[in-house]
Amino acid sequence: MRHTDSGGHGPVRYGPGAPDTGLPVLPGLADVVAAAAAHALGEPPGGGPVLREAAAGYWWRRGLRGHPEDIAAAPGPQPLLLALIAAHDGDVLMPRPCPAWWTPQIRLLGRRAYHVPTPAECGGVPDPYALLETVRRVRAEGGVPRLLLLSVADDPTATVAPPETVREACEAAVSEGLHIISDETWRDTLHRPDGTVMLSPAEMCPGEVTLISDLAGALLPAAWPVAVARFPPGAAGAARRARTLDILTALGALVAEPLAAAAAHALDEPPPVAARTARANALHAAVAAAAHHTVLAAGALARPPAAGRHLYADLGPLRGPLGERGVSDSMDLEEYLTARLGSAVPGGHRFDDELGALRVRLATAPLLGATPGERAESLEAPRPLESPRVERALARLRTVLDDLT
Question: Which residues of the chain are under the pLDDT cut of 50?
Answer without folding.
Answer: 1, 3-21
